[in-house]
Specification:
Structural class: mainly alpha
Number of strands: 0
Oligomer: single chain
Radius of gyration: 24 Å
Number of helices: 9
Helix content: 55-70%
Shape: rod-shaped
Order of helices and strands: HHHHHHHHH
Length: about 130
């Protein structure tokens, strides 16, 4: 419990759950607070773990941008036309802008192996879309 609550970095939440845990276990709240404090000092947050937390907190792309990504990655039919008519600056989400830019570069450079090659175990390759 202590590890989960410490991840939030919220002292009020930490105290609240210390009290709830103490009540549930029928022990003194101060004893649980002390145990929570012990676990906070013994655990160092890994850099990768903190990056995962920040990634999960990142805003999701808008629905139109999500559909654009899906369209560009599932079909090769109109990528060249879209690349000619779409300015990357029009895309609000930075990750979408990066992926679309890379997809356009792969199309222009002739390095796009095709949808089936990128997703060898997917339903796309097997024709089960």
């Amino acid at each position: 419990m202590a590890e989960a609550v410490h991840k939030t970095g919220n002292e009020v939440l930490l105290d609240t759950y210390a009290q709830k845990t103490a009540q549930r276990l029928s022990v003194a709240a101060e004893a649980v607070r002390n145990e929570f404090k012990k676990s906070s000092g013994s655990r160092v947050v890994d850099v990768e773990e903190s990056a995962e937390v920040s990634d999960s907190a990142a805003p999701r792309p808008s629905q139109p941008e999500s559909w654009l990504l899906r369209f560009l990655l599932e079909s090769d039919d109109h990528v060249s036309w879209i690349a000619l008519h779409l300015e990357l600056d029009w895309l609000a989400h930075p990750m979408v802008r990066e992926i679309v830019g890379q997809r356009f570069a792969a199309e222009t450079g002739g390095s796009w192996p095709g949808v089936a090659s990128c997703f060898p175990n997917s339903r796309i390759r097997s024709g089960k879309t």
